[in-house]
Amino acid sequence: MSRIIDKASAISVAATIIVTLISADGSGAAPKNRLPQAKPQTSTSPFIAEPPLFIAEPVVQPVPQAEQANNAVSGTESAPASAATLRQMVEAQPQPDELPRELNCLAGAIYFEAKGETLPGQLAVGRVIVARSKSGRFPASYCGVVYQPSQFSFVRGSGMPAIDKRSGNWRKAVAIAQIAHSGSWQSPVEGALYFHAARVSPGWHLRRMAQVDNHIFYR
Q1: What is the CA radius of gyration of the chain?
Q2: Integer Cα distance of 176 and 183 in angstroms
Q3: CATH: 1.10.10.2520, 3.30.1360.40, 1.10.8.640, 3.90.190.20. Which one for 31-218?
Q4: Which residues contact 145 (CB under 8 A, 6 or more apart)?
Q5: Where are the domains of the chain?
Q6: For a Cys-Cys bond, which of 18, 29, 161, 177 suits 107, CB 3.0-4.6 Å?
Q7: Which residue, among 182, 202, 205, 203, has the nearest Cα to 33 in the 3D structure?
């Protein structure tokens, strides 16, 4: 009789652990601002459990000449080399009537994932998409990264929800997309490939870099 009770207790404990693990991954996860659990091909560093580092916007940063290849997509002129703030760079970006498809995908992802964030926070999200497109582990285009199945929950089938392109949030996303694409301002989490909203705890076994606004970024 004691063996039966012990066995039942063990099964109960195991079931409790499984339910806890499943609920921890999805608990409190809003559909917006979260990347699903994409697993990298390699992971050499365990998940770091200490409180995340918060990143503030730097005061100034050198602005290099944008390369001609970068301008082929954006259709913009190279920015002069100077010292500027990120806000000044955003204000200096052109606002074309029609964006190339790739920049439209990048700007759309920034808009839906981070339109309520600071400029460094929006840039961090944009640079993740740029980094993914160059990593060899994700599709090699911005649209391919954004529309890859099960990556960005704002995607509806093969498209995005409607955007009010007269809004200040969209104009800001367009400017940040151009800066992220040209690489003319360094992200506070440069090289990150993953992020999730700070309010959720997916338990990824990745190297955490820092928290910027309401997102935690990983490499």
Answers
A1: 20
A2: 10
A3: 1.10.10.2520
A4: 105, 129, 132, 133, 138, 139, 151
A5: 1-29, 31-218
A6: 177
A7: 202
How far apart CA 131 and CA 7 sit, in angstroms, is 50
Whether 146 contacts 32, CB under 8 Å: no
Q: What is the pLDDT of residues 16-35, one digit of tens each?
A: 433 333 333 332 223 334 44
Least Cα distance to 212 among 126, 131, 118 occurs for: 118
pLDDT tens by residue, 168-204: 999 999 999 999 999 999 999 999 999 999 999 998 9
Total residues found in the chain within this entry: 219
Residue indicated by tokens 């039966």: 4
Six token digits for residue 134: 């160059």
